[in-house]
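Holo prediction. Input below; ligand is 1-deoxynojirimycin.
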Amino acid sequence: MQKHWWHKATIYQIYPKSFMDANGDGLGDLKGITSKLDYLQKLGITAIWLSPVYQSPMDDNGYDISDYQAIADIFGSMADMDELLKEANSRGIKIIMDLVVNHTSDEHAWFIEARSNPESPERDYYIWRDQPNDLLSIFGGSAWEYDQASNQYYLHFFSKKQPDLNWENAELRQKIYDMMNFWIAKGIGGFRMDVIDMIGKIPDQKISSNGPKLHDYIKEMNQATFGQHDLLTVGETWGATPEIAKRYSEPDGQELSMVFQFEHVSLQHKPNAPKWDYEKELDVPELKNIFAKWQTELALGQGWNSLFWNNHDLPRVLSIWGNTGTYRQKSAKALAILLHLMRGTPYIYQGEEIGMVNYPFKDLSEINDIESLNYAQEALENGKTKEQIMDSICMIGRDNARTPMQWDRTKQAGFSVSDQTWLPVNPNYKDVNAAAALADPDSIFYTYQKLVGLRKECDWLIDADFELLETADKVFAYKRSLPDESYLIAVNLSDEEQDFELTDSYKETIISNTDENQAFANHKLQPWDAFCVRLN
Ligand code: NOJ
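Structure of the complex:
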């Protein structure tokens, strides 16, 4: 199998509004990111996935783009972007751009033209119907918005300000490819593709994702753009099964490097329930089954996994599946060790490497996220109490991941000199911050640094087979094996001591958050114990 740089890479996701504010307006910006590249170089990451920084009215914090080839004023200028690329590349860090081409903003020049002139070619860049059907928007309510001037409805699977693009239109597709080539020419490292599985939608048949032409479009895009370059491409595909993921990522398939699948994350809510109906306790046996399935079905040469716990749409993993109290540090290391030694490309979301947790929101007035706000309104109308709604938002809402990065113990956690930041800084910042983590050799940061280093050094992380081991329910243990090397990874995903009956002796410790000798001697794992040892 041909190896690419991204097989040995760890990617770090930056949510620009919340990473670092260089100009003191209370919002993160590109200059702020550039100022923190040394920190990221110390962590050792290979590439940054930059959530959108393009021109946007910010209805969905940049996932509503009004100009793909301009930078939003709040983030800086194209010169700042070029500077970030140059400074990152000089440190060996690539920049992966967020590609949001399922929809644009309603303030994009194409949509303005489409709306004001139904005879224009741009009209057909979007999806218009005389009558709406009952398709629903992911952000609540109907997916159709009435346009009085033309007496038609346009489709928007997200907010009303995010009209869906019509990928059937070849001229539109070419414009998108031209735009992608503009960014490739700037020397970027690849694209993260927002809800890419929706571009083949057929609204009249109520097909939103995995439409029949989806893979044709992706192949065409590959040929017209990144296929000529060694770039990382990762599709956001909520509806992918292992079969579908193979199709996207098989080495000769000429589609993508990998996709994000969300099956493990679906355990955060009750089966077949909306995400707000969250599950209080992690079903560890189910988590094991899901990972084992993906690890074995996307075997070497057949496809490639991406590995993540967090992103800007998910709650902080420590708050939902880890421990935010006594075992905050230990559980953060345990979750990291568990994930990063599987097969795939790991992603770290900003602040994960210092163990950031959810924000203690008290009131709806503190919420910014459009999805949470729309949910609150609908839930109130459906008779839920404010307490129930806040409980869901505090656990699951997207703002939890979006509060400012905690750099140090000074005002606003060193994120901004402004008295007011766009979302508040988590009150735990005096204890949980990057400066404190860097000063403590035993911190979560250094576990991540070690894992990122192992990913670069160890071929077995790419090549070795995966085998799930039979253990106590709350213990997640697996073996990675090659003909003459094998490794055991064992993690206790609970606050209680667990039996651990494995009798193997081991040769060498690769990484650990505990005294693994004790675990082997006593056949017990202490709360959140985690280690990887070489067996032979
Ligand atoms: C997925 C993105 O991750 C999310 O933040 C956004 O709201 C939707 N796609 C719409 O672009």
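The longest strand covers residues 475-482. That is the main takeaway for now.
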